[in-house]
Amino acid sequence: MLKRKSTPVKNTSNNNSNSKSGSAPSITYITKSTEITADMFCEDDVRIAGTVDGKIESKKKVMLTESGKVNGSIHSPDADISGSVSGDVKAFESLVLRASAIVDGKIFTKKLTIENGAQVKGSFQVGPNVSIPANGSQIVRKTGAGDKKKEETDT
């Protein structure tokens, strides 16, 4: 009889070797048919194809698809907007406004890319030394080793 070596089975689906924990990167996805009325705080990337009535804050990237609508502010290190935003956009590092983007509000970012066709009704503060105002949230975040810190900022 033939003997087979037993080999452990590895789960290779969505593995990301660059991730610190070895797990796959997470994306919060708001589908086209979803409507949310709430402020959102996300640790990971956010992709919005539906409608959000409220502030969106992410520690990573916010992506707004062509069908996506945000009635409130966006606050993240990076943002890529193809849909419509009625509120301020505060992207610490970079902001991309795609051709289909419509923004009615103030824009604050270090680096801005605007495709031909994007519409903006508001003001821009762009550059490496731009001062990005606080977002007005009161969010409890873990600061390390189980400690919690309440961040309070002005609007």
Helicity range of the residues? under 10%
Major beta sheet, specifics?
A: 9 strands, parallel
Count of β-strands? 17
- What would the average pLDDT be, to the nearest integer? 79
Number of H- or I-type helical stretches? 0
| Residues in β-strands, percent | over 45%
Unreliable parts: 1-19, 137-155
What pattern of helices and strands is seen along the backbone? EEEEEEEEEEEEEEEEE
Cα shape? globular
Structural class, by secondary structure, is mainly beta
Oligomer: single chain
Radius of gyration: 19 Å
InterPro entries: BacA/B
Biased composition (Low complexity): 8-26
Family: Belongs to the bactofilin family.
Protein name: Polymer-forming cytoskeletal protein
Describe the protein.
Residues 144-155 have a biased composition (Basic and acidic residues). Residues 8-26 have a biased composition (Low complexity). With 155 residues, the chain is mainly beta. It is 0% helix and 50% strand. Strands 1, 3, 4, 6, 7, 9, 11, 13 and 15 form a nine-stranded parallel β-sheet that branches. A hairpin with a 2-residue loop joins strand 16 and strand 17. It starts with 26 loop residues before the first strand and ends with a strand. The relative contact order is 0.11. The model is unreliable at 1-19 and 137-155 (pLDDT under 50).
Provide the descriptors you would attach to this structure in a database record.
disordered C terminus; disordered N terminus; 155 residues; 9-stranded parallel β-sheet; mainly beta; globular; 6-stranded parallel β-sheet
